[in-house]
Every structure is written in C-alpha cells, then in structure tokens.
Amino acid sequence: MKINKLYIAIVLSAGLTLHSCKDSKFLDVPSKENVEAEDSGTVYTPEQFVNGVYGMFTDWDYAFSFLGITEMISDNADKGSSATDSGGDKLLLDNLTYTSTAGSFQSMWARWYKSIGRATRAIEYTEEYGLTDEAYKNRLIGEARFLRALNYFYLVRGWGDVPIQERDYIKREPAAEVYAYIEADLKFAIDNLPVKSAYAAKDLGRATKGAAQGLLSKVYLYQNKWQQAADMAKTVINSGGYSLEKDYATIWRLAGENGPESLFEWQARGTSIAHGIQQYSQVQAPRGGAVALGWGFNIPSQNLLNAFNAENDSIRRDATIIFRGETLYDGRLIDNGVENPMYNEKAYSSANGGAGDTDKNIRYLRLGEIYLILAEAANELGNSNEALDALNIIRTRVKLPKITTTDQAQLRQLIWKERRLELAFEHDRWFDLIRTKQAKAAMAAEGKTFQDKMMLFPIPENQRIQTPEMPQNPGW
Fold first, then answer.
1. CA–CA separation, 234 and 219 (whole Å)
2. How far is CA 419 from CA 41, 129, 436, in A?
3. pLDDT tens digits, residue range 99-112?
4. Do residues 98 and 92 make contact, with C-beta atoms less than 8 angstroms apart?
C-alpha cells in the first residue's frame, strides 16, 4: 500500500463545473478556466485549485496519445499491440505518415492548453483569495507556475511558435517568447518553493525548488543556453537534496517511487474514486499469453535493443525491456504466448497487473538526467573534464567503462548516445532527435523517411478550423 504521498483527483469535486470566461477557440478548451461553486455554496481553498492542476496529468491522454507523439513516433519504440490494430493514429505515427488530422496531436494540444488554463485560474484564485500567510500563498502560486511552465515546455518543443494563452489575443508567439515566459514562471517557482525535505509527508509529490531548478536547466538545454544550463544543473547536483539510486532498475519499482533521485513525478493512485494515471501501465503491458496484462502498445524497437547490446549495457537494457519468456523481478512469468517479443518495463506495474487504474508514478525528471544536462552543456562550453566527470558518474552506476575522449565532437555524440540509453521510454527521445538534428538519420536507420516539415508537429486541423487566422507550420 502506498502511504505518505500526494493523492490528487482529476477534478476537485463532483460539484465543480468548468466553463470559459471568454471566447473559446482552443479546441473547445477555455482560454482560462473558471470554477463555479455558487450552486453548492461551497468555498474551495486555493490548495484545492492547485491540486486540480496536478490532476490533469492523470488523464487517459497520457496513456495513449502522449505515448504516440513522444515514443512510438521515435526510433526507440514501435506501435506494438496486434498487427491488425492501428491504435487509431498510432500506426501512422510509427510510420511517419501522419497528417494534421492525427488525433494524438489534437488530444495533447488540448490537454496541455487545458492544463495551462487551470494553472492560470489557480494562480488568480490564490492571489484573490485573501491568504495572510505570504509564504504559503506564494508556494501555491509557485506550484501552479511550475506546472504551467511544464505544459508550455511540451507545446513549444512540439509546435515551436505557439499562443500564450494568458494574452488577450490569440496569436502564435515566437518560440523565444514562449521560452522566456516559461523561464519567468520557473524563476518565480525557484524563489518561492521549498526544498523537497521541507514538505510534510502528506505533501510528498508537490513541486519543489529542486524540481523547478531541474526543469529550468532542461529548458536552457533545449535553447542551447549552455552556460545557464550547466549552472542550473550544478545548482541541483550541489544542493545535497538528491542522490542517484544505486540500482538503476529500482527507479521504476515501488521502492524507487519519490526516491532520492526523483525531482518530480506525476503521482498515481490505484482506486476508481480518485484514479491514478489512467491506463498508463495497462496500455503498455504485455498482450496475450497466460499473463494477459494489457494492450501491448509502445514496444521497444529492435533498434533500441541493438543500441543497448552494442554498448554492452545489460543493466539498463534489462531494466527497460521486458522480454518474452522472462521471469520478472517480482516472480511474474511473461510466457512465450505473449504477442510481441518485447515490452516497456519502465511502465510495468507489479501491484496492479492489468488494472486500468495504475498505481505507478511517471518519473518526469530525475537526477540522472541532470548529470547528462551538465555533461552536454559543459562539453559545448569546452569544459571536457567537467563533462566527462558528469557523464562517467552515470556510466559507473551501470558498470560501463569510463569515457576518456576530450574531443568535443566525439564526446557530443557519446553524450547523446548516453541520453538515449539512460532515458529510454521517459518521453524525450523524439524531442532530443529534433533538438540535436539527428532525426533524419535516425529514422532512416529505421527504414522510415523523415521530412523536414516534421521538425515541428502540425497544428491540429480542428484548431485550424476554429481559428483559421492561426498559420499552420511549414509543409503541413
């Protein structure tokens, strides 16, 4: 049984209704969400409003559409399931034959903007509520601004220039402006959030100062702001608040949940009243056979397996991939009757099996990635020794030999490879391929054609119908 963690419902209460306070043009997603409680006479606290923002990460969108546009689209994963099951648009995403009508883009575009709207309303409500404890008020606002920044980060990485919903107009803002907006939210969060250890046990899972610092270092990385990325990564590493799990495989098991390596996780709960990340594990669990745990989507590619084997990286391979015929760490046999030869072990839930409501947290940001951010940024700054130190800390944990080259170009490639192996199935591979301009070659190695227009996702067609004045991304 899970204890001492933040359980967050998708909605604050059955008595709350959501509506738009201005013209709604974001796929029926309000530009700002208001919560009406007058009919019930209930007054909700600012904390309940903020909790509702966290709850947005538990929706079904994260069990299917999210997987499609972050993993199945990349060289790390294939669609999986049965050959006859297209998964809606998942086969199109896997084959890079998708268009602007693909439902997964529409779902996540709407999800992220709806989450942003809820975060903004939580900020406004908290500011207007009349809290006299300034530190507590600013902490709640800091949490909401952290969550808003996280959602904008997905949008700007996927679509480039995107509208900033809090403006009084609907216009695609330059990506640089969106990034500046994200940075401002995260800097406020850093200044006003407590460190992880300062939270009461009941609040474990809330955004922390370290989470905001870690996300800001990643935001800097994606903008090639090397010095800022390195400085912020070192701030997290040197804070003393985090440490690497000794056993890499433990990170994705119950024992590693909200553990010493964790900067931020999407919290889950396995009950139907306030369910966790809906069907995240079930959708990816082994399909068929005697186990019949799930649907079998988002399976490791042969390309990813080859990458692990080429590096002799058996520790991370075996923590990332479930193999047909394998007996898992908890004693469960994945018999030879399952439909596919491999499945995603990082999504596996031992306790819930094939239940629709997962008890498994999604590890969004962890110290292992912060070391790799430092390694990449330091290398780009010409600090090869610092880069090697950070890189080899990650390799030593999984018993791989240390890298010694100080050649910047060679080291860059090695760091990118390390990111792939360390962070496989943690929902960043596609964005990394785009950011590092490796996508065309990587997809060609998979026998797929990457077109230049795929550097950005297409604006969903339904959005274009509602706001025809919003320009489509080039080529779509």
1. 15
2. 51, 44, 12
3. 999 999 999 999 99
4. yes
